[in-house]
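Appendix C. Worked example: Glycoside hydrolase family 3 C-terminal domain-containing protein
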Amino acid sequence: MRLGFFDGSPQYTSLGKKDICTEENIELAREAAREGAVLLKNIDQTFPLDADKIKTLAVIGPHANTTGAMTGNYAGVPCKIVSSPDALSAYGEVDYKVGCAEMRCMDDSLIFPAMQAAQKADATMPP
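Step 2, the predicted output written as structure tokens:
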């Protein structure tokens, strides 16, 4: 009873994609994502990346190309989910490599291709 399960329909249950997925709301979500990124160290003032100097970018990590993990326990239907490699490809060539298929990295066969991609790229980023 305390959770409100018997209080009738909540006021927001009637909202659909037409109400939520507006350009204004999508831009607000982009802004929140940009401002929510945390950089713990910026050694040699690497960030923000210089688009004139960085033409190729290696994106490496088991979750770098996932979109399902980005929603967490969000129960709604997302308007649009863009993976890190897809988003970054707007700024240059992106070479995505898994590196390890899962966090424990029980199979190291994907590490060497990730290392090669990192060596060839102008910059390397985790997801």
